Amino acid sequence: MNILILGAAGKIAQLVREKLLKSTDYSLTLFAREAHQRIKIENSLRETIVEGDFKDISTLRKAMENQDLVFVATMENVEAMENIVQAMSENEIDKLIGIGSLGIYNELPESFNHWNRKTLGSILDRTKEAVDYVDNRTDIDSVILRPAWLYNEAGNEKYEITQKGELFKGTQVTREAVAHLVLEIIKNFEKYKNQNIGVSEPNTDGDQPLFLQ
């Protein structure tokens, strides 16, 4: 399988890349701005770097060639998602995994939702627009993740999920756990396809992320 990672220099993207290299034989295309300065090839037989911007659809088209699945490490801009989807369509790719944000549907418990919306502000509206654009496409089988507030803790891959329309659980989740879930979705895409999933660490309910308290 050939996987295109968009936003490949990001923290979650790098963790997903590491897991894919260790546990699969998939080939990876790593797409990012200034990618050659920000990313170091670990396996020259399985990895290719592409420098580009989501605004540059010609570079996106080229990166999409011969890909089977696209992983978008951050969905904060609807114009970028429009270009990504157009490039996918032109290359006959119909599998996409994307990371959005918790709270875009006001799906959090009331006190946490108030804090989250006050803290993130217009980012939530921009992310919702980008997520909705993909979620409403009938020509793409997508899996959208809405992770809780992210932090790092090596070895902590605990997570629980909620579906779109359900009350969100928890306030935080490790990047390691989100990367682990992305890996599971890539390996078992048919099981998860067309789901919009909230992701959080069990037993972390509260008015704000526990790591901030």
> Average pLDDT value?
96
- Alpha carbon gyration radius: 17 Å
> Could you please say which CATH topology applies here?
Rossmann fold
- Please report which band the strand proportion falls in: under 5%, 5-15%, 15-25%, 25-35%, 35-45% or over 45%: 15-25%
Largest sheet: 8 strands, mixed
CATH top level assignment: Alpha Beta
Low-confidence runs = none
Count of helix runs: 8
- Known CATH architecture: 3-Layer(aba) Sandwich
Q: Quick one: how many beta strands? A: 10
What best-fitting shape do the alpha-carbon axes yield? globular
List the secondary-structure elements in sequence, H or E: EHEHEHEHEHHEEEEHHE
Count of discrete structural domains: 1
Polypeptide structure, described:
This protein has 213 residues and is α/β, with parallel strands linked by helices. The protein has a single domain (2-212), classed as Rossmann fold (3-Layer(aba) Sandwich), CATH 3.40.50. It has eight helices and ten strands. The strands form two sheets. An eight-stranded mixed sheet has the order 3-2-1-4-5-6-10-8, with helices on both faces. Strand 2, helix 2 (35-38) and strand 3 form a beta-alpha-beta unit. Helix 1 crosses helix 7 (175-187) and helix 3 crosses helix 4. The longest helix is centred in the middle third of the chain and has 14 residues, at 122-135. It is globular, with a radius of gyration of 17 Å. The N and C termini lie far apart (43 Å).
